[in-house]
Design goal:
The chain is built from eight helices and no strands. It is mostly helical and 213 residues long. The protein has one domain (3-212). The protein starts with a helix and ends with a helix.
Length: 213
């Protein structure tokens, strides 16, 4: 892989992480909208089982990242470590400067947050990495089960975690969280399919050029 391609991937991951952390902080956190996936699972452990987030995060998210290394290789592992590290830095930056936008309508906040999270995760995935352990789980399941698209896997896993979150969250909060995860899942699926189509077209063009040469 040449330097230009590496720089392009790094740039994509940074942009995707900025969008992802912006949506989670300014829309989800500000309006009390919870997440599915690993983050939702960590919150369940914290609120129901009283397990410290820092401990459960290392065990769950760290374990899933290692699983991603096994299935997708060193480059994916490196990109994922980079993405998760940058996410922590950027999210901390947003916390220091405060909310950049205020949305008082929870429905609109759920939609905008879902779009931001979907765009951010989609860009990071298309750059060859993952924003967290739940992305890795979704990528593995969708690669093993052809009938399930990436968006459907996200939806199934996130909804499952959100249902479990009813053990400590009120139903009205859960409704907006479901809207958010459905939106983000659809956006990720659209971006993933679009990127796959482009890669197929580029591969065919390269094959034609090799034959012509």
């Amino acid at each position: 892989m040449d330097k230009r391609c590496i720089i392009k991937k790094i740039f994509k991951i940074i942009v995707g992480t900025f969008i992802l952390s912006f949506g989670i902080y300014n829309f989800y956190y500000q309006n009390g909208i919870t997440e599915g996936g690993v983050l939702g699972l960590l919150l369940i452990f914290k609120n129901v089982l009283k397990v410290d987030v820092s401990i459960s995060n290392i065990l769950i998210d760290g374990g899933l990242i290692l699983l991603g290394y096994r299935y997708f290789g060193k480059k994916f592992f490196a990109n994922t470590i980079f993405a998760t590290s940058i996410f922590s830095l950027i999210y901390g930056f947003y916390e220091k400067i405060g909310f950049l936008i205020t949305i008082e309508n929870n429905f609109i906040a759920a939609l905008l947050g879902g779009i931001c999270v979907g765009l951010g995760c989609g860009i990071i995935i298309n750059a060859g990495g993952a924003a967290g352990g739940d992305d890795i789980v979704a990528l593995i399941i969708s690669s093993k089960l052809d009938k399930l698209s990436l968006g459907k896997v996200y939806l199934l896993t996130d909804i499952s975690i959100l249902i479990l979150s009813l053990s400590y969250l009120p139903i009205n909060t859960m409704i907006y969280s479901i809207i958010a995860v459905v939106t983000s899942g659809q956006v990720i699926n659209i971006m993933y399919r679009f990127n796959t189509t482009i890669e197929l077209v580029e591969t065919k063009h390269n094959q034609i050029d090799e034959v012509a040469a």
